[in-house]
């Protein structure tokens, strides 16, 4: 019995840890704008200005941004801060040794981050969309920031100037004789340079760009796949009718 109880406690601990790793926080549905060129261009601008300082996208070249309507000259004039060549990959400006000293680990590469963060709460885009909008001030942390989706996250809020500062609001309830703090919403402490609606719009553009960057050919692949399925459907119908015509006199 003692071994059984110990095993159940271990399983409960693992499940609790898994829930804590995602903050026990419901993910919001991210907008899908991977077909919206204007949104992708804005997302690329936000990525270069607010993410590329610390995070690389080592499997994406700047000149691939021509697929979302940008010219080489536009890329050079507006997006090249870490290199002087359009054909170079998106490398972070930060020194890896300094990053490890500051954050405890090197910031992860973001090329396929939107595909690697999918879970039972939703898609990787849903996770990123919720994560970037769930920072709050926490003076007990070294960076001064915490996150509802990723508690005790090492990365400070990269978009705090745009979003401002917020704090979570909780409702205290009783469950099985214990106090439970239920998240109820946010209170804006200090305004940012964007309104909440504009910030959500910008975050959606950034997440859509991260989705597109993870597989730039995805939309083309889907379009080609639809036409292939239509062709196969038409061909199957023609083959069925030809078969009926060839065998109609055979008894």
Folded structure, characterized:
- This protein is of the alpha+beta class and 251 residues long.
- The chain has helices spanning 2-21, 37-50, 72-78, 96-103, 113-116, 124-132, 160-163, 196-214, 218-246; strands at residues 57-61, 89-90, 135-137, 145-147, 164-175, 178-191.
- The chain contains nine helices and six strands; from the N terminus they run H-H-E-H-E-H-H-H-E-E-H-E-E-H-H.
- A two-stranded antiparallel ribbon has the order 1-2. Strands 3-4 form a two-stranded antiparallel ribbon. A two-stranded antiparallel sheet has the order 5-6.
- A hairpin with a 7-residue loop joins strand 3 (135-137) and strand 4 (145-147).
- The longest helix is centred in the last third of the chain and has 29 residues, at 218-246.
- The protein starts with a helix and ends in a 5-residue tail after the last helix.
- The model is unreliable at 1-23 (pLDDT under 50).
Instruction: Supply the CATH class.
Output: Mainly Alpha
Mean pLDDT: 86
Count of DSSP H/I helices: 9
**Could you say which overall geometry the principal axes of the C-alpha atoms support?**
extended
**Strand/helix succession:** HHEHEHHHEEHEEHH
Strand content: 15-25%
Give the total of domains.
1
What oligomeric state do the depicted chains represent? Answer: single chain
**Strand order in the sheet with the most strands:** 1-2
CATH architecture: Orthogonal Bundle
- Amino-to-carboxy terminus distance: 74 Å
Residue windows where pLDDT falls under 50 for at least 5 positions: 1-23
Query: Level of helix content?
Result: 40-55%
What structural category characterises the helix and strand content? Answer: alpha+beta
CATH superfamily: Cytochrome c-like domain
